[in-house]
């Protein structure tokens, strides 16, 4: 099972790992990226940590004009729409939680809008934070059950 999440951003302003970590901290999320990660150059799996657990997620940037079917998902909710960040992961709860946490930091710190294509809805920062914490709990419970 593959999951996706999209964040639309209104500008092409630089996004650094440091600003994402600070935004997440302000939301009550303990997020970290591996030292070699340069968020602006993300393309593929990006390693990091969430709530002290090693994890990561596939992250890609793309221009709205090259992905009109994704751009249409936002249905004019953000104008201008300068770029989109896509997150993809398998069935791993911690990877999903990491994607949600990074999305929350982008939405809060860069005035983005998050769309969940599985649910067909825009997610607020509060929902992203709530779902992040819930998936961390699920990941830890699944780890205990598997031992």
Strand content: 25-35%
Strand order of the largest sheet: 2-3-4-5-1-6-7
Indicate the mean pLDDT. Answer: 91
Helix content: 25-40%
Give the number of domains.
1
| Tally of contiguous helical segments | 4
What letter string, H or E per element, gives the SSE order? EHEEEHEHEEH
**Total number of beta strands:** 7
**Main sheet properties:** 7 strands, antiparallel
By secondary-structure content and strand pairing, the structural class works out as alpha+beta
Overall shape: it is globular
CA-to-CA gap between the ends? 23 Å
Tell me what you see in this structure.
The structure is a single chain. The chain has helices at 17-26, 68-71, 93-110, 125-146; strands at 3-9, 31-33, 43-50, 53-62, 83-89, 113-116, 121-123. By secondary structure, the chain is of the alpha+beta class. The protein has a seven-stranded antiparallel sheet. Helix 3 (93-110) runs antiparallel to helix 4 (125-146). The model has no long low-confidence stretch (mean pLDDT 91).
What's a concise summary of this model?
By secondary structure, the protein is α+β, with helices and mostly antiparallel strands. The protein has helices at 17-26, 68-71, 93-110, 125-146; strands at residues 3-9, 31-33, 43-50, 53-62, 83-89, 113-116, 121-123.
């Amino acid at each position: 099972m593959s999951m996706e999440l999209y964040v639309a951003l209104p500008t092409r302003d630089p996004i650094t790992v440091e600003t994402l970590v600070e935004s997440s901290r302000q939301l009550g999320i303990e997020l970290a990226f591996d030292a070699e990660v340069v968020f602006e150059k993300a393309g593929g799996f990006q390693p990091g940590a969430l709530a002290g657990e090693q994890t990561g997620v596939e992250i890609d940037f793309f221009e709205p004009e090259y992905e009109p079917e994704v751009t249409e998902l936002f249905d004019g909710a953000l104008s201008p729409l300068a770029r989109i960040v896509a997150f993809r992961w398998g069935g791993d709860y911690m990877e999903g939680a990491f994607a949600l946490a990074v999305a929350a930091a982008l939405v809060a710190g860069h005035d983005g809008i998050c769309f969940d294509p599985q649910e067909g809805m825009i997610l607020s920062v509060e929902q992203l934070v709530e779902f992040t914490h819930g998936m961390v709990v699920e990941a830890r419970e699944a780890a205990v059950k598997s031992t």
